[in-house]
Write a structure and sequence with these properties.
With 416 residues, the chain is of the alpha+beta class. It has two domains: 159 residues, Alpha-Beta Complex (tt1808, chain A), CATH 3.90.1570; 182 residues, no CATH class. 50% of the residues lie in helices and 12% in strands. The protein has a six-stranded mixed β-sheet, with helices on both faces. The protein has a two-stranded antiparallel sheet with strand order 1-2. A hairpin with a 3-residue loop joins β8 and β9. The radius of gyration is 24 Å and the shape is elongated. The termini are far apart.
Length: 416
């Protein structure tokens, strides 16, 4: 059971009490909220269970329908800045739902809400049915929760088509993860840019290569010392870099998961991480990426990824400016990525298809940002048309500028 009392949690809370007041204004004290053929007449905050305190529980009489979880317990502390797709947060909600015999759960961080069936906890997070909602798509929290409840009751009546498609759900999950880690990386970036001369120099060089007309003298200056034009250009450069760094971090984790299906990759890169460890604590962290060793997470991942790229000949896939990957992980970022690594261990990405990463880039990363990253996706039908144009014609080659190790050469095209 959680060591936190309701009063301890309340001091840490915000989002779920805002949502509670929205719900409380709609039903309770004899008032009911009708959603189709169903009604809700009670919402209880901080409901005590064997596993802890559920943030919100919605009832129809004595029957509980939905547990809404808005916080995450980390080392006994209630953290409200959560990734609602995080397996840790979802599992926390499931424990409360199991204690109370509740059929549905939702996780919510004030902007994104994710609805799931509680009874599917044995399924991997990727294959579990879910629906993601963004508050910005609705006219306030009341409109959001009414839609969520409408979908929940419709699903209960058998309208399963309301669930998100698996691939769409994964894209939403990665988009939410990117949006979660980006502002936290930005805070660390600001600190390193001012405090680390080598990193600052590499960043300025990168910005120049991107044609951003970035002035090194802007680093560390107060906004009041710069014109509005210079402030805007500085902000654009910093935002662009951090967003790309966050995309590349997720990109690397997914790519690594795809290629690690071979046991030799796992053994090989794990040994490289062992060789780089200079303390018993780091060796223990390699054995299990425990929360207590999150300060080693970034170094550990970088060692394993660099090994598989350089020594197993994947440099053609991941050649990037050396300035990327240098923003330090805060404990919150490490904790969140550690959750994601645990999720990836449940995904069988190798069975999704060879075009998985390309489709993921196209859906997840906006077009302009993909251009800046140098990540381009060639649809399979274009590759096939290119192949037919040169197949069986001696001496004829295709030209695909900028092609790395993707689907074009994978379909047997002789390229120049």
């Amino acid at each position: 059971m959680s060591s936190l009392s309701p009063s301890d949690v309340q001091r840490e809370a915000k989002h779920h009490f805002e949502l509670y007041h929205v719900l409380r204004n709609r039903f309770g004290d004899g008032e009911v909220w009708s959603v189709g053929d169903f009604t809700l007449d009670r919402v209880e905050p901080e409901t005590s269970t064997e596993s802890g305190f559920a943030d919100l529980v919605l009832y129809d009489g004595v029957d509980p329908w939905l547990v809404v979880e808005c916080k995450k317990l980390v080392k006994g502390e209630a953290i409200e800045e959560i990734d609602p797709y995080s397996s840790t947060v979802i599992e926390q909600a499931e424990r409360y739902a199991d204690d109370l015999d509740v059929p549905y759960i939702a996780t919510y961080n004030g902007e994104t809400l994710v609805l799931l069936r509680a009874e599917e906890g044995d399924e991997s997070l990727y294959s579990r049915r879910k629906i993601g909602y963004s508050l910005s798509d609705f006219d306030g929290q009341e409109d959001l929760i009414f839609t969520v409840l409408s979908d929940m009751f419709a699903i209960h009546e058998g309208e399963t088509e309301r669930w998100d498609e698996e691939f769409d759900a994964l894209v939403d999950r990665l988009r939410e993860l990117h949006e979660f880690i980006t502002p936290r990386l930005r805070e660390q970036f600001n600190s390193q840019l001012v405090g680390e001369d080598e990193f600052a120099g590499q960043f300025v060089d990168w910005a120049d290569e991107q044609g951003m007309n970035y002035d090194a003298d802007w680093i560390g200056k107060d906004d009041s010392d710069l014109s509005s034009y210079k402030r805007r250009k500085r902000e654009e450069a910093h935002d662009t870099f951090v967003k790309q760094d966050a995309y590349l971090t997720l990109n690397q984790l997914i790519f690594y998961k795809i290629v690690e299906d071979s046991a030799r990759f796992e053994v090989y890169t794990r040994q490289a991480a062992y060789d780089s460890a200079d303390s018993e604590d780091k060796i223990l962290a390699i054995e299990s990426l425990s929360v207590n060793e999150l300060d080693f997470l970034q170094e550990y991942l970088r060692t394993r990824f660099d090994t598989i790229v350089e020594d197993v000949d994947y440099e053609a896939v991941f050649e990037q400016d050396p300035v990327f990957g240098q923003i330090g992980f805060t404990e919150r970022v490490s904790d969140t990525l550690n959750d994601f690594i645990s999720e990836l261990s449940e995904y069988n990405l190798s069975n999704i298809g060879t075009d998985f990463l390309g489709q993921l880039y196209e859906r997840l990363i906006p077009t302009e940002e993909r251009k800046s990253l140098g990540e381009f996706y060639t649809p399979p039908e274009n590759c096939e048309a290119h192949r037919r144009g040169v197949d069986g014609k001696p001496g004829r080659h295709g030209i695909r500028p900028g092609c790395r190790d993707g689907d074009v050469p994978g379909r047997g095209l002789p390229l120049d």
